[in-house]
Every structure is written in structure tokens, then in C-alpha cells.
Amino acid sequence: MRETQNNQNENKKEADQLNLNLEKEIEHMDRTSGEEFQGYEPVSEKPKKEKKPKKPKKKKTPKQIVKRVLIVLAVIILVPVAAFFTLRALGKNFLFSGNVNMKNAVDGADVQNNGDLVIYKGHKYRYNENITSVLVMGVDREKVNSDEEYLKEHGAGQADTMFVAALDTSSNKLSLISIPRDTMADIKMYDEKGKYTGTRNTQLCLAYAYGDGKELSCTNAVDAVSNVLYGIPIDSYVSINLSAISILNDAVGGVNVQVIGDLTSVDPDLKEGANVTLLGDQAETYVRTREHEPLDANLERMRRQQQYITAFIQKGLQETRNDIMLPVDLLNLISDNAVTNVSVPKLTYLATEALGVSFSSDDIYSIDCDIKEGDSGYAEYYPDETKLFELVLDVFYTRID
Fold first, then answer.
1. Which one of 217, 225, 338, 366 has the fewest CB atoms closer than 10 angstroms to its CB?
2. Cis? peptide before 327, omega within 30° of 0
3. What percent of the chain has pLDDT over 70?
4. Nearest by Cα to 84 from 318, 248, 252, 328
5. Would you say the C-alpha torsion 383, 388, 389, 395 has a positive or negative sign?
6. Domain boundaries, the chain
7. Which residues does residue 111 pair with via DSSP β-bridges, in sequence order?
8. What's residue 4's pLDDT?
9. d(CA 167, CA 100)
């Protein structure tokens, strides 16, 4: 028992000595570091950054708000305006791309520089480069179709109505030359596959038939009409099918006419001399109906067509002054029933120029022709070459002496 007590005393002494040594070590660490021991910091924790207080947003003044609104409005307005004038500039470039190439002038005419200058009956005439021309055609087909099998069975159709619209952009003068469908001309012939097969002297309306019912038909008709007009350039074309007539007519609110001839056999309302606002299919009936006899039966129909197109243009110009985008809307309405190279840029330019145009029946010109019956029994119209040449000088040239 005494031995156990001695062991306990020795263990106590060793513990006291260890505590004393530990206190000395801690005291030594305090003196060398100058800081009290704070224990060990956890390795995973990082000191937190103090959040800076947010500065209050400054309220915009009324002047700043107005300035910002004006900037937004300027962008909204200027971008469409810039696009409009870009389209207009492009359209102008596209419309004046052709050059005169006068051919087969009448006797006594001195043609210089391909027709840029003409000396005739002692006077000098300069080709007016401010004029752009569009060939407008009405085709006797219900729809546009260039399918080869369809063309074999039905053909591309014929250009029953042909007008050359000449717009002088320097004077805002619009002139329309009505060309008889049966005018004899040299035209290029193509088969159903579009292969050129030769040239034939025949009725002008068939130039459209020798084509694909689309672009080839139109360009073939343009070439033929240009040749009839002594090589005057025709920059653009529009061909519309039967279905498009009533669409265009109703889009401008109908067209008012005083009926020429008695058409009661096809429509009881179309009595000779009656004032009628043509609506729907009436418009097509009025401009297409003709007798098959005699040979000059087409002349009365041409008078109705000239009357109708005059009234339609006047109505269209009036509506365009209220809505400058109307021509574009009309083109979109008949897109499935028309073939044209009048693009949106071209139409934009023409629409802005048309705002200053005045137009009447005095601005429509007819071609004097000698009418004969051909070997096939169909009418053949032979233009008076001298009068036609003088008409070309009057519309497309400027006298410079």
C-alpha cells in the first residue's frame, strides 16, 4: 500500500512538471509574437468582405426623358425614310437602262448615233433620256402557267391589249400609245421548250404566244413592239391575265365609264351611252367584248379600252396621292395573275413621279393603220409609216432647233 502511494506521488510530480514546462513555452510564444494566442482559424473559412452601400439612382430630368424619346422617334422615322429613298434611287437606275437603236427610219430621215439624233424635214430632234417606257399587255388566259404540257395543250396565250406607257420624268408627262393587236410585225418564234426557231411576219399579238407564258413571252413581245416603234427602248413590261382585271378595278373602288357601243347582249346594264361604274367581272366584259365581224371590229373595242385605261389611271393617280404605297399594293394583289419585271424599287420610283402627273384622253395616241384581210382570213393592220415615225418623234424626242 505504501508502494502504491509512492507511485501516485511520483506521477503527480511529473504532471506538475509538465504543466510548468507548458506554461513557460506559452509565455515564450507570447513574448516573441507580441500577440496573445487566439487558437487556430478554420482553413475553409474566408474573411467576409464588407458590402458597400449602393448609391441611390439619380432620377432623370424631364429634359433627359424628352431627349431619349426624340432619339427613339428619330430612329423609327428615319430608318423607313432612308429605305424608301434607297429603293427610289435603285428604281431610277433600273428604269433608265436601255439605249435607243433606231432602225428602218422613213425616207427623208437622217438618223445619227443609232437614233440619238434625228434630222427630219429640216429640224433636229434629240432622244429624250428622261423618258422611261413600260409595255402593258392584257393576255387572254385565266392564269400564269409555263408548264410544258399545259403550253402544248393551251398555248401561252395572246396579247389582246397592248399599250406603251411613256413617262417623261422631267416634265411629269405620261403618254400612252395604243398598239392594235393585229399590227403586222417581224416576231421571233420559239417552241414549247423555249428554243428559237426563226422569225415570222405576223400579227403582233402572237409575239406573246411564241414564248413560255412568262418572261420569255414578255421579252419577245417587248422586242417586237420596240421594232414597230423604230427601236425605241422599252425598259419594263407588265402582262396581266383576265382574272387580274376585276381585281385591279375593284381595288380602286370601281371605274366609271360612259358605255361605248351596245353590249346588252352580254350585260343588260351596259347600254350604249349609259354612265356605269364598272365593278367585278363587268370591267373584264367591257374591255374584252368585240364582234368577230367586220375586219375593223377591234377598233371599237380599242376605243373602249382607251376610255377605260384613261379612267383607271385617273382614279389610280387620285388614290395614290392619298396612299403612295397603292401601286405596290396593287402589284401584290395581282402577283399570281401577272408577269412583270417592275420590281419594288422601280415601282417606288414610278409612284413618287406619278404624284405630279396629270393625265387625260388627250395623252393617248393611236396608230393609223391600213386594214386588210390576210390569206388566213384574219385582219392585218399595216401602220402608216410616216405618221408612226412622226408620232415617235413627238413622244420620245425633243426638238432642239
1. 366
2. no
3. 71
4. 328
5. negative
6. 96-399
7. 118
8. 46
9. 16
